[in-house]
Here is the input.
Amino acid sequence: MGKIDKNVLTQVKDYTMITVGLLCYCFGYSAFLLPEKIVTGGVTGLASLLYFGFGWNIAITYYVINAILLAIAFRTVGKQFVIRTVIGATIATLLLGIMVPLFKAPIVAQQPFMNVIIGAVLCGMGLGIVFTHNGSSAGTDIIAAMVTKHSNISFGRTMIYVDMLIISSSYLIFHTLDKIVYGLIFMFICSIAADMVIDSNRQSVQFMIFSKKWKEIANAITREAHRGCTVLHGTGWYTQSDATILLVMCRNYESMHIFRIIKAIDEDAFVSQAKIKGVYGEGFDHVKVNIKKEEAEEIVHDAMP
Here is the structure.
């Protein structure tokens, strides 16, 4: 029962944060980009093209395009991807339907470049939050998933090609290059902001602790910080004596707690600290790599002695 409750709480937390991320994205898009008539990448950009060109409702167009893409790609992308995408697209559609009519003019008046930067940062942060909590923003990642499935073109490269095609298409409506430039600037800043959010969530720290009181430090870290320690044996070349080293990995925000434990037990301990982009395994992140069952079985078979 406890495990079920924990899973439910995790799901509630994930969907709450996905909603927060989509709220951030839709606000940045509706309040800063759309009033400046900036066409972005993805299905949002495609919907905005139809909005500027034919006056179609952005929210409804966004949802319909995603539904069509999902219907085409259902067998390719898998059930879980479809469920996450439907939830993400539904929330985004509702938010766009509410926010788009609220902002007839950009918040920062007569500053298109500033609006592009602020909107890109907000959209990137929103997407980063969504991806961090296993959500999907729907959109052109469906197309990328289909192309990757049937060709050697990478997922990321496909996304770039599709987004650049959508942004460049704005020339057919506005007949000016500055809208394309703003759209490309948005794409660049948005991706950086999203990566920063994703990487900061995965950021971990590795400690290597040299101390004669290594047992006490290891026990305290295990008991108080709830982190495991790995004991390594080496030789101090300067003293030509045996040395015991503790290897500890923890989240970035836990590092000060580890330092306090070390200092309380041995102020003379020699400590090195290094930042790690990601740690995967029990107590940290799960390895999120899609692999077919047949491919996994082949790898296991080849590894057999």
Summary: The beta strands are 204-210, 229-236, 241-251, 270-276. The chain is about 65% helix and 10% strand.
